[in-house]
Prior knowledge:
Elements: E1 16-20, H1 26-32, E2 38-43, H2 46-62, E3 69-74, E4 87-93, H3 102-111, E5 113-124, H4 126-135, H5 137-140, H6 152-160, E6 165-172, H7 176-186, H8 195-210, H9 213-226, E7 229-235
Parallel strand pairs: 1-2, 1-4, 2-3, 4-5
Antiparallel strand pairs: 5-7, 6-7
Helix pairs in contact: 1-2, 4-7, 7-8
Amino acid sequence: MITVDFQCLHLPAGSRILDIGCGSGRHVAAAYDLERVEVIGADPCFSDLKKAQARLQFHDYLGAHGRGRWRLHAADIKHLPFADAGFDLVICSEVLEHIPNDLSAMQEIVRVLKPGGQLVVSVPRCWPETICWMLSRQYRHDPGGHVRIYNARQLLNRIESLGVTHWRTHFAHGLHSPYWWLKCFLGVHRKEPLWPVRIYHQFLVWDLMEQPRITRIIEQLLNPILGKSVVLYFRKPGIGE
């Protein structure tokens, strides 16, 4: 499930990319397909990094990559172990909503971005997320879960105040919002999910694996209305700008 639109970024060959909060490596693997990139995935969770490692090793086995390199690091977004201005692209997808001190996280992802580099931030969209919070107390109090709901305009302004310029917004995963509403309504952590949740999950997995044209069209139509994620694109001014 890829949230970032890599095609619109027009990254040159050899770009250096950081995916902070990479989880099981979905965006690291997608970026690894670009030409001769060095892509680094960072996450504080060792079990997620092991999953990312297995995913990337499978890409290596298949030869499904752009002849670049990948690395994984255990790292805290509030204290990144990387030098200033080291990356052409920084991805921070579905991470900030988990961080109590999100300002320090924002400062760090801007710090490690090169002048002229690009930053992509995605968070749960305000109104679909609000419905999840309304439907389930467990969802909003889950340890390690979401600690806030972002207003996209306020988040955009906060990130821009750190020295980057916003240039694009889009919404993603319109088919996923109803799934999460259903899951919250029927029980987020049921040992055995009820049949409506199981059937919807099977549909999402099928759609992810097969990507039929009809559901791609439906999701594109739904994203502006029901998109679960808001995706913000920024550029750091180049030297002399």
